[in-house]
Amino acid sequence: DHLRDVEGLAEGRRQDCRLLKALGRAENPENAHALLLNIGWWTVTRVPYPARSGISSGVPAIRLDTPSLEGRTDLTHLTAFAIDDEGNRDPDDAVSIDDDGCLWVHVADVACLIPPDSEADVEARARGATLYLPDGPIPMLPPELVPRLGLGLAEDGVGPALSFRLELSPEETVLRADVIPSIVRVQRLTYEEAEPLLQTDQHLRRIDALTRQSGARRLAAGAIELDWPEARIRVNTSGDDPDIDIRRLAPLRSRQLVAESMILAGSGAAWFAREGDIPFPYSVQDSAAEDESEAAAPLPAGLPGAYALRRRQLPARVSGTPAPHRGLGLDAYGRTTSPMRRYVDLLVHQQLRAAATGAAPPLDETALMERAAQA
Question: From CA 161, how far away is CA 111, in angstroms rounded?
Answer without folding.
Answer: 10
